[in-house]
Design goal:
The complex is a heterodimer of chains A (142) and B (252). With 142 residues, chain A is mainly alpha-helical. Chain A has one domain. Chain A has 6 helices and no strands. Chain A starts with a helix and ends with a helix. With 252 residues, chain B is mainly alpha-helical. Chain B is built from 10 helices and 3 strands, in the order ααβββαααααααα. In chain B, strand 1 and strand 2 form a beta hairpin. In chain B, helix 2 runs parallel beside helix 3 and helix 5 crosses helix 6. Chain B starts with a helix and ends with a helix. The chains are: A mainly alpha (142), B mainly alpha (252). At the A-B interface, helix 1, helix 4, helix 5 and helix 6 of A face helix 3, helix 5, helix 8, helix 9 and helix 10 of B.
Chain lengths: 142, 252
């Protein structure tokens, strides 16, 4: 578990280097990635992968918005490095491998699952943003 | 008097277009680009401007007698710190902390700036993150070094191939092919053990994560044209990586 946390921190921070994120926001990028990965592995044990991914991306979206406000930097810097570990790369790879081996039944199953996981990532990010906008509107009315 | 006013409007349009161009080239979302351009125009005295942004071009009009201006974007990279810097300039300009000539000077500087990190450092980062991804996807530590080497090779060859051929699809395809070959070689030589885990880990740095995020955000905020075209670009990249790896499996 500790190895998972440390590697997810380093992986997300290294990823933001590939995207040329500003130097001073690297630790925060790593932190977002670490939190999302922790949520993901905690939930993945007892719930489905789609649900775990959804919850983890929602956390990514929420923490990125908070960080963006705190450090006055665009949200996208934090959210990208946070959601990268959740991209179903492994599953897409497995699907591709089964396609190549003419095992279409398993391949289609895996591809469908990868598709749903990408959908969950999208919904999680959007939901965080929509909630943020709603909170802001309601707050300004009061 | 009339002439001077026109000149001022012209300069405003130029600054807004420059800011939009830098942001779009560095990988910002469409809504952020449009928002920044309109805000800057408003603070410079053009409250009713319209900007229409797609991944390949920007159209900007001031709702006045001036003709609409168009900028073509041919090259797109990912440089999030430039997005952040342009954002800062626009913030300072709207709050009145800097004037128009200062803003233009700073935007020109940002445009000329090199990337925040040198290329070798990015490749090292890609290598390290590949190793970490291997551990995160339940690979063993014995595969750490092969994954690090494959991941570094992956990003390095994407950058190299993109320099010699303009077609992005081909660059990604050949990079993932090389990466898969190297992973197989490691397993054949007995240095690595699980070829699947090594490939999954080391392919992550070239996965189109930013494009997917941007595509979704654009679609949800109503920028349907840019959302769909970015989605198509992400799909093409994923497809290129997939075929590159698949080719390795077919050949070996």
């Amino acid at each position: 578990m500790i190895a998972q946390l440390i590697t997810s921190f380093i992986a997300s921070a290294a990823f933001s280097v590939i995207f040329n994120a500003p130097r001073r926001s690297l630790p925060q990028c790593g932190l977002v990635g670490m939190v999302s990965w922790a949520v993901y592995i905690l939930l993945n044990g007892s719930y489905s992968t789609v649900l775990a991914t959804f919850a983890a991306t929602f956390v990514v979206g929420a923490t990125s918005i908070v960080f963006a406000r705190l450090y006055k930097t665009p949200v996208i810097i934090f959210s990208v490095s946070g959601m990268i570990p959740l991209v179903p790369g492994g599953m897409a790879y497995d699907a591709m491998r089964h396609f190549v081996e003419n095992d279409y039944n398993v391949a289609l199953q895996l591809a469908a699952q990868a598709f749903f996981i990408s959908g969950a990532i999208a919904i999680g990010l959007v939901l965080a943003e929509v909630l943020n906008q709603m909170l802001r509107k309601v707050g300004s009315r009061i | 008097m009339e002439d001077k006013l026109d000149h001022l409007t012209f300069e405003t349009i130029e600054i807004c277009l420059l800011a939009g161009k830098i942001m779009l080239q560095s990988g910002a979302e469409t809504s952020r680009v449009e928002d920044t351009m309109t805000r800057m125009a408003t603070s410079l005295g053009l409250p009713r401007s319209h900007s229409y942004v797609t991944p390949t071009g920007i159209i900007f009009s001031t709702d006045g007698a001036e003709p609409a201006k168009l900028i073509r974007i041919t090259e797109r990279t990912t440089d999030l710190s430039k997005v952040a810097e342009v954002n800062n300039v626009s913030r300072a300009l709207t709050s009145g902390a800097i004037t128009m000539p200062e803003a233009r000077l700073r935007l020109r500087e940002i445009e000329q700036d090199k990337h925040t990190y040198p290329i070798w450092f990015q490749i090292v980062a890609a290598a390290i993150s590949s190793g970490c991804f291997l551990i995160m996807f339940r690979g063993g530590w014995y595969d750490f070094i092969p994954a690090v080497l494959c991941g570094g090779l992956g990003l390095a060859s994407v950058i190299y191939f993109q320099r010699i051929v303009a077609v992005k699809f081909f660059a990604e395809f050949s990079a993932s092919f090389l990466l898969g070959l190297l992973a197989f070689l490691f397993v054949k030589l007995g240095i690595g053990y699980e070829v699947d885990k090594i490939i999954i880990g080391s392919v992550m740095p070239i996965v189109p994560g930013l494009l997917i995020t941007n595509a979704v955000r654009d679609l949800m905020s109503g920028h349907l044209v840019s959302g769909i075209s970015k989605g198509a670009e992400a799909f093409l990249t994923a497809f290129a990586i997939g075929t590159g790896i698949a080719l390795v499996f077919i050949l070996l």
